[in-house]
Write a structure and sequence with these properties.
Layout lengths: L1 H22 L1 H12 E2 L5 E4 L11 E8 L6 H10 L3 E2 L5 H17 L5 E9 L8 H4 L11 E2 L23 E2 L15 E2 L2 E6 L10 E4 L17 E8 L2 E2 L3
Parallel strand pairs: 5-11
Antiparallel strand pairs: 1-12, 2-3, 3-11, 4-11, 5-6, 5-9, 7-8, 9-10
Helix pairs in contact: 1-2
The protein binds 2-acetamido-2-deoxy-beta-D-glucopyranose (4 copies).
């Protein structure tokens, strides 16, 4: 009896869907496509407008991974690669909000006041120079051009509007950012990677980007500079086909 009801219900559904397909072919088809794509466990999916600037990406899955030891940017990349993903970044306010919320929750739970997480992004070759003249000239002094991302499936246009107001400084290690009006100096080492600040009690910095030396796992490492200590990274990958 029960089986019969389920079967009847199923038939009704199929008929209904069919009717809908005939009614409104296009919208039903796209809905059907969306249902077939699914993000793996721990990943959250976001729809993106496919364009030439994001390699025609329609859906992208993001995972915020929090760790309790300092990792280099390269180690973060490898960790993402190991699960079929790449070090990634956000393409919209919603994606950014997801990352900030997830990381902030971890910080609050572990009583961490401030820190950072790795995102995709690398200083462009031309600007990896200690020549100050070049550093302070275009394109190296342009927030929208001085960094690029390594994975083409995210359009970084929105991310580059989220630099902290003094970032990317001709950001150097050791960290002496906005307090130093005389930067850059020739003895500095370039900061070529991108971190997002996680600072739940500070709306000015929480969720904002800054540039930093890529290898945080190797000294010089200043624990006094809690703000730059790395607590995680963001992996991104395409969805998988779902047969359910
Ligand atoms: C970008 O899209 C092209 C064409 O679909 C594909 O061959 C290539 O693998 C994509 N690149 C990445 C990194 O996904
Ligand atoms: C860090 O996390 C790992 C796994 O989550 C755990 O085994 C390890 O004890 C932790 N280390 C510290 C110092 O909390
Ligand atoms: C965080 O701080 C609270 C209050 O001081 C304490 O009870 C809790 O155990 C701390 N949690 C961790 C993970 O250290
Ligand atoms: C720095 O770059 C400028 C512009 O490209 C160049 O004219 C200058 O010679 C460079 N200075 C040094 C010390 O290499």
């Amino acid at each position: 009896m029960k089986r019969w009801i389920v079967f009847a219900a199923l038939c009704f559904c199929i008929l209904n869907v069919k009717a809908f397909v005939i009614d409104n072919d296009e919208s039903c088809e796209s809905e059907e496509k969306q249902q077939k794509m699914k993000c793996p466990k721990h990943y959250k999916g976001y729809y993106r407008q496919p364009t030439a600037t994001n390699n025609q990406t329609k859906m992208w899955c993001l995972r915020v991974v929090m760790v309790n030891v300092s990792v280099s940017e390269q180690a973060a990349q490898q960790a993402c690669n190991a699960e079929g993903a790449v070090l990634s970044t956000f393409a919209s306010y919603d994606e950014q909000k997801h990352i900030v919320r997830h990381a902030s929750k971890y910080f609050r739970y572990n009583n961490i006041t401030q820190g950072s997480i790795w995102l995709d992004g690398v200083r462009i070759e031309q600007c990896r120079t200690l020549n100050v003249t070049q550093q302070i000239a275009a394109p190296c002094n342009d927030k929208t051009k001085v960094f690029d991302i390594t994975d083409p499936r995210t359009d970084p246009k929105y991310a580059w509007t989220q630099w902290y107001r003094t970032a990317p400084s001709w950001a150097y290690w050791p960290i002496r950012t906005e307090e130093y009006s005389t930067y850059p100096t020739v003895d500095s080492i370039t900061a070529d990677c991108v971190q997002m600040w996680i600072y739940p009690g500070n709306d000015d910095r929480n969720g904002q980007l800054h540039a930093i030396h890529c290898d945080m796992a190797v000294p010089p490492y200043d624990f006094e500079k809690a703000l730059f200590t790395n607590y995680g990274y963001v992996c991104g990958r395409p969805p998988v086909l779902s047969f359910y």
